[in-house]
Amino acid sequence: MEKPDSILENIRKAKEGNQIAFSFLLDTFWNDVYGFQLLRTKNENDAEDITIRTFSKAFDRISTYDESYEFRTWLITISKNLHVDLIRKRKRSVLDEMDTHGDAVKKVLDETPSAEDQLITEQNLANLLQDIKKLKPHYQKVINLRYFNELSYAEIANELNEPVNNVKVKLLRAKKLLAKIIAEK
């Protein structure tokens, strides 16, 4: 686990909109939130979806984070509430899926290429397409929409009927997974 100072420093940078800090927080806490949800939901897709929504909501509301609480605890609490919401939603049957937390979406990621973007861009296209096929379908789709259809985050959100922040978190996660696949070859 990272030193608490490093985490607090990245939280402060994230509050200022720093992309690398968001990426650091996602990397540091993804497994904690995903593991927690996997135990609760017993379903990989639900766990992943709730984890993406958790980071989306957390990044959207990072300015409200109170440093007197552990960041991990804050994320788990958001995650728990999202899971309860999901259960309620399913019990109410599938009404129109409403996004209750997203009109004023803050910029989570800026447009500058990350290290993962560089690695992805340098790959031979045929190899890259093979590597993309190793990702889960929803990650394949977001990568294809962003890099092959060259859609903006807003256009992807519209296409997938999802909040922009979910798209940003999903794309960040997809790029990390793809970069890992490429690096392991």
UniProtKB/TrEMBL annotation:
Keywords: Sigma factor, Transcription, Transcription regulation. InterPro entries: RNA_pol_sigma-70-like, RNA_pol_sigma-70_dom, RNA_pol_sigma70_r2, RNA_pol_sigma70_r4_t2, RNA_pol_sigma_r2, RNA_pol_sigma_r3/r4-like, WH-like_DNA-bd_sf. Belongs to the sigma-70 factor family. ECF subfamily. Residues 32-92 form the RNA polymerase sigma-70 region domain. NCBIfam families: sigma70-ECF. SUPFAM superfamilies: Sigma2 domain of RNA polymerase sigma factors, Sigma3 and sigma4 domains of RNA polymerase sigma factors. This is Sigma-70 family RNA polymerase sigma factor. One of its GO terms (molecular function) is DNA binding. One of its GO terms (biological process) is DNA-templated transcription initiation. CDD domains: Sigma70_r4. Residues 132-178 form the RNA polymerase sigma factor 70 region 4 type domain.
